[in-house]
Design a protein that fits this description.
The structure is a single chain. With 184 residues, the protein is mainly alpha-helical. The chain has a two-stranded parallel ribbon with strand order 1-3. It has a two-stranded antiparallel ribbon with strand order 2-4.
Length: 184
């Protein structure tokens, strides 16, 4: 595949992708070719030469048609002033989520659906619990504290029942006597 053939394939693939995403694509082929720097052209040409003679067609040789800024991406109109040829890693880094960014409601629903119903290993649960230990949870109402206490006592009773008659329970071992005091 020659450099010119590769540019035609790349332009058409990029155009189809942007239109499929619902964005306006006002970039003609000559403007697209003008976005490629001399250095990028040399890199693409050398990689195409390395692939010459192989059956593989280059899907990506390191560069993508991207946006000049996240604001241009949000506007949704790709033209010669809003488009830029970038290394694909730099393009991904420019548009990744940053502190303070939030997922859309649709993205949250998809993430939840993908995670829902999956069994987690004991190690996974332990790692997650370890990360959450020591983090303040904020003020809780008395009702919430009571619910947490009831659940904790139920868990402890279930563990005792599963372990069998191994000895006195915590409340019976309490050196001060009386009922077991909850941390809540």
């Amino acid at each position: 595949m020659t450099y010119d053939e590769y540019l035609v394939v790349w332009y058409n693939r990029s155009r189809r992708y942007q239109l499929r995403c619902g964005r306006a694509f006002n970039l003609n082929f000559d403007e697209f070719c003008g976005l490629v720097s001399n250095y990028q052209r040399a890199v693409i040409t050398s990689r195409l030469e390395q692939m010459e003679g192989t059956a593989a067609t280059p899907q990506r040789v390191g560069y993508v048609l991207s946006w000049v800024s996240p604001e241009a991406h949000a506007a949704g109109v790709m033209d010669s002033s809003t488009a830029k040829i970038l290394n694909y890693r730099n393009s991904r880094q420019m548009f990744r989520k940053r502190k303070g960014d939030t997922h859309s409601d649709g993205a949250r629903a998809r993430i939840g659906a993908a995670k829902r119903g999956k069994e987690q290993t004991r190690q996974h649960v332990e790692r997650r619990a370890e990360k959450q230990r020591g983090i303040k949870r904020g003020d809780m109402s008395k009702e919430t504290k009571a619910k947490i206490r009831v659940k904790a006592l139920a868990r402890e009773a279930a563990k005792r029942a599963q372990a069998g008659p191994a000895g006195p329970c915590r409340a019976e071992r309490n050196p001060q006597g009386g009922e077991r005091q909850s941390w809540i």
